[in-house]
């Protein structure tokens, strides 16, 4: 008996235009510059910490580029800077979470269609299912459903919430795209000691969810897989799992020391070709872009990074009163009295 | 605040609004029915909440009346139920999930504490969580393990959550209606041992249709604080949930010995109505806090501190606590040994009455 669920052949969209291919490159370049700069900012003391996504630009930009901001919603964890940039999220607001300005960042999640950054891996995967089921409950006809795109990694796939989310989504036929970036490492633990069976995508069959494993370092392949998945979910056929195979080329975070668990030789062998360099060669070989375009893209990326850095450096701390004011929509007497005491005793009156 | 509700009840007893005898189960069921009718964004869901109507029948008949989209069964996974609630709230819905029994809230703690309680804060107020989580709570029904837990201190300790527990059908109806109308997450702890006791429920109007039951402030004016259930002069018993009824029994017995006991139903376990505590104990000058939860770091400690802070100069004795013990909730055979019973509460009253400054 063949029980392998398959994606509905609903994606009849045209291939990416040359303009779109060039835009993807520009986005990846912007993400690369911002990502590597953010590590430098941390070393320079501009921000206290950062979780780089070096090497995951194709997976993040390719998938984020498929989002329809008029109706879809994205549920990130803490390493989705490339998705945020591809979706046009305010990047000073995004990076402010790494400046330790505000957990969740200062960007506007509803307008950005990008949920607040949160650090419990797999925590937001269930939120995506609830949001997606809400689209069904709202009574939108098939073909017009908003789709929830939720990101998580090979490490998070070990969490029970991922199982609950996939099962709920399949039972409810919720329009969710589960996007796994399998980057080989969950801090220090490699995929083979994290994911039984070696693949998250293969688990999907147990839920009756169609799944694709895609080369996560090929931005066009990622985009097309995501667009297909969106078309499937949007048409009311239920969730899809995408496992983008990629590699975390940097440390887990700026506090991490990969030398304790992998060698530079390991990295060179396992990382494969840099996705940005790979896409550059392809665009040049296909005649989609020339060296002048590539140079201009990097120049623009540098200028953008500098503007974001200036914005981050200009960010002062939030007023302490926000600690109290933003806990509830309707505050409590106890909280008001604590705020009053804080104001008085801190001489902020 | 406690005085307001007393006044409201007197007014309604004078005939301005109808009174019906309902069990708490019926009162909660009716409240949910009206909430669903009034607010199209409300969704009620959980394990067995749909076709079965819930293991306690609190959602009985609601799916048939309001449809499978509004009232539905979920797979058997509490983290999933609460995590899903977050996403529904982000999509603009007002979820009223049920966790089937108190002890099954533990598998959902991550979603409750790390997500529901923080999303408003994390999103800087742009993604409120108008979630009312119904939890059949406390002990007293000879149930299996994990079916008799008292989680109020745990939830009350979490910034971003509000916690309430009704003690009778009237409060159950109105507090649930109120909680479900608010923009913040509320843990609604239903005393399962009181589900089947009937009591008078005063309604806002003769035909409590959607608009009147849901829209105005009037029906729940006074529901945001504690309530003096019985007035007395000598000592205040502070309780919530099922312990309120027990304290009323104790008060009747104590009255036979000439001890005039005031019973204060705290109702809101967060935020706690500190002015009501101070008003009551300021008058009686003695207080005993009664709860089912274990003693150490229980909510009784918080209540005792609020009383001490507000009534230190007039207190005649240290605030006493009569509570469960620091043991796992026991099997049914030992339940009566564990729960504060009439004798233990009377001993507590005796201790504060006989206390002499050394």
TrEMBL record, chain A:
It holds the Pfam family E1_dh. Its EC number is 1.2.4.4. One of its GO terms (biological process) is branched-chain amino acid catabolic process. Its cofactor is thiamine diphosphate. GO terms for molecular function: branched-chain 2-oxo acid dehydrogenase activity; magnesium ion binding. Residues 26-303 form the Dehydrogenase E1 component domain. It catalyses: N(6)-[(R)-lipoyl]-L-lysyl-[protein] + 3-methyl-2-oxobutanoate + H(+) = N(6)-[(R)-S(8)-2-methylpropanoyldihydrolipoyl]-L-lysyl-[protein] + CO2. This is 2-oxoisovalerate dehydrogenase subunit alpha. It comes from Arthrobacter cavernae. The lineage of its organism: Bacteria, Bacillati, Actinomycetota, Actinomycetes, Micrococcales.
TrEMBL record, chain B:
SMART domains: Transket_pyr. Its cofactor is thiamine diphosphate. Pfam families: Transket_pyr, Transketolase_C. InterPro entries: THDP-binding, Transketo_C/PFOR_II, Transketolase-like_Pyr-bd, Transketolase_C. Signal peptide: none annotated. Residues 22-197 form the Transketolase-like pyrimidine-binding domain. Keywords: Oxidoreductase, Thiamine pyrophosphate. The keyword Oxidoreductase applies. GO terms for molecular function: magnesium ion binding; oxidoreductase activity. This is Alpha-ketoacid dehydrogenase subunit beta. The lineage of its organism: Bacteria, Bacillati, Actinomycetota, Actinomycetes, Micrococcales.
């Amino acid at each position: 008996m063949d029980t392998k669920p398959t994606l509905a052949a609903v994606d009849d969209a045209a291939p990416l235009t040359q303009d779109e291919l060039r835009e993807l490159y520009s986005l990846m370049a912007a993400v690369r510059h911002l990502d590597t700069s953010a590590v430098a900012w941390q070393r320079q003391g501009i921000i206290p910490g950062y979780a780089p996504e070096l090497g995951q630009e194709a997976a993040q930009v390719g998938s984020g580029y498929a989002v329809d901001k008029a109706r879809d919603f994205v549920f990130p964890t803490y390493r989705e800077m490339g998705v945020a940039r591809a979706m046009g999220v305010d990047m000073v607001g995004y990076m402010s979470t790494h400046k330790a300005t505000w957990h969740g960042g200062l960007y506007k999640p509803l307008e950005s269609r990008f949920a607040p950054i949160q650090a419990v891996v797999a925590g937001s995967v269930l939120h995506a299912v609830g949001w997606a089921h809400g689209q069904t409950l709202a009574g939108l006809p098939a073909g017009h459903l908003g789709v929830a795109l939720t990101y998580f990694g090979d490490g998070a796939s070990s969490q029970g919430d991922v199982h609950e989310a996939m099962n709920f989504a399949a039972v409810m036929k919720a329009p969710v795209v589960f996007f796994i970036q399998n980057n080989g490492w969950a801090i220090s633990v490699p995929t083979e000691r994290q994911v039984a069976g070696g693949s998250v995508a293969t688990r999907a069959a147990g839920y009756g969810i169609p799944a694709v494993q895609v080369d996560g370092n090929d931005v066009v392949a990622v985009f097309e897989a995501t667009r297909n998945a969106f078309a499937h979910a949007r048409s009311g056929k239920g969730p899809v799992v995408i496992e983008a195979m990629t590699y975390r080329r940097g440390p887990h975070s700026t506090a991490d020391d990969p030398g304790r668990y992998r060698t530079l030789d390991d990295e060179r062998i396992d990382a494969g070709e840099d996705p940005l360099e790979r896409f550059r060669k392809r665009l040049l070989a296909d005649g989609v872009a020339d060296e002048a375009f590539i140079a201009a893209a990097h120049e623009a990326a540098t200028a953008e990074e500098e503007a974001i850095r200036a914005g981050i450096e200009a960010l002062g701390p939030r007023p302490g009163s926000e600690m109290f004011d933003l806990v509830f929509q309707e505050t409590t007497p106890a909280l008001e009295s604590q705020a009053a005491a804080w104001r008085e005793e801190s001489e902020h009156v | 605040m406690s005085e307001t509700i007393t006044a409201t009840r007197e007014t309604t007893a004078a005939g301005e609004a109808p009174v019906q005898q309902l069990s708490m189960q019926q009162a909660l069921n009716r409240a949910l029915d009206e909430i669903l009718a009034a607010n199209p964004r409300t969704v009620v869901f959980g394990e067995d909440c749909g076709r079965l109507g819930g293991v306690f029948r609190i959602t009985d008949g609601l799916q048939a009346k309001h449809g499978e989209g509004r009232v539905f069964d979920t797979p058997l996974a509490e983290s999933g139920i609460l995590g899903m609630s977050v996403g529904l709230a982000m999509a603009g819905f007002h979820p009223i999930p049920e966790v089937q029994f108190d002890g099954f809230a533990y598998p959902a703690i991550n979603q409750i504490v790390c997500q529901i309680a923080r999303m408003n804060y994390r999103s800087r107020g742009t993604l409120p969580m108008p979630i009312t989580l119904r939890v059949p709570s406390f002990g007293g029904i000879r149930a299996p393990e994990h079916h008799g837990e008292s989680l109020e201190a745990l939830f009350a300790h979490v910034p971003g959550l509000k916690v309430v527990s009704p003690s009778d059908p009237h409060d159950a109806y109105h507090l649930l209606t109120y909680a479900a109308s608010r923009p913040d997450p509320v843990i609604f702890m239903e005393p399962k041992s009181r589900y089947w006791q009937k009591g008078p429920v005063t309604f806002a109007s003769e035909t409590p249709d959607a608009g009147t039951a849901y829209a105005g402030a009037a029906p729940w004016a006074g529901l945001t604080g504690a309530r003096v259930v019985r007035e007395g002069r000598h000592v205040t018993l502070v309780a919530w949930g099922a312990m309120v009824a027990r304290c009323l029994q104790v008060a009747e017995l104590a009255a036979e010995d000439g001890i005039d006991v005031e019973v204060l139903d705290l109702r809101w376990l967060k935020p706690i109505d500190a002015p009501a505590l101070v008003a009551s104990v300021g008058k009686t000058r003695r207080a005993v806090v009664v709860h089912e939860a274990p003693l150490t770091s229980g909510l009784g400690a918080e209540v005792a501190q609020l009383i001490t802070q507000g009534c230190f100069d007039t207190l005649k004795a240290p605030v006493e606590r009569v509570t469960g013990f620091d043991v796992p909730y026991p099997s049914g055979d030992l339940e009566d040994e564990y729960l504060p019973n009439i004798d233990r509460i009377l001993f507590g009253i005796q201790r504060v009455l006989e206390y002499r400054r050394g």
